[in-house]
Amino acid sequence: MARKIDDIQRDIERTRRQLASTLDELADRSRPENVVNDAKQTATAKLRDPQIQKILLGVGAVIVGGIVISVLRSRKRSNDIKELQKLLAGRV
Fold it and tell me: Can you tell me where the transmembrane regions are (predicted)?
């Protein structure tokens, strides 16, 4: 049995409303401020994870350790250069 024209028109209208709703939702999701807010929420949620906090703490410790070693080496070289300059100045 064939469908009635009224049924087909109702289906078409329902499909149009659903499509319009979907397009509105996609437009809302793609707005830059919404994308930024979603990214912030995701990052905040990940930073609250204890496992991620441990990893970041470890990475931070390695970075700080590298900076400390670099400063200490720089000071040692500076002191070595000053000592060489004194020795060379004494030879003249």
Answer: 55-72
